[in-house]
Amino acid sequence: MSSEYSKCIQIRIFTHTHTAYSSLDLPIFAKLYEFYEKLTLGIAIFPKTKRYTLGQKLDNITLETFELLFSVSNSNNKTETLYKISNKIDLLKILLRLANDTQALTNRSYLQLQEMLQEIGKMLGGWIRATKQSLL
Fold this sequence. Notes:
Blueprint: H1 2-6, H2 19-24, H3 27-44, H4 48-71, H5 78-101, H6 107-135
Organism: Candidatus Shapirobacteria bacterium CG03_land_8_20_14_0_80_39_12
Domain bAvd-like: 30-129
Protein name: bAvd-like domain-containing protein
């Protein structure tokens, strides 16, 4: 399954803009998509007391990250948008640790999800550096 995600996800959508395709073709989008799939499986087995609080927050922040990622190509200030995404990724890392520490998430799931976020963070860091250099 992970080999499927090593390539860019090809999602067919009908839209009047080319931007939708260019955003969806990004490797970081594919990795975030894979992260979200695994996260939803983890949230589904959260204890009820955590599912509708911590689980919902994790879900919402991930979806907000998708929105920001999708909007980067149309943004007037790409660097600012990329930093917003970076902040969301950092917040996801903290919330995942909290989920693990409160036994809402298994150690195995926690490690897999954190590893994915680390990879997303590295991709994002490279993108931020490249964007900053292109502005010079």
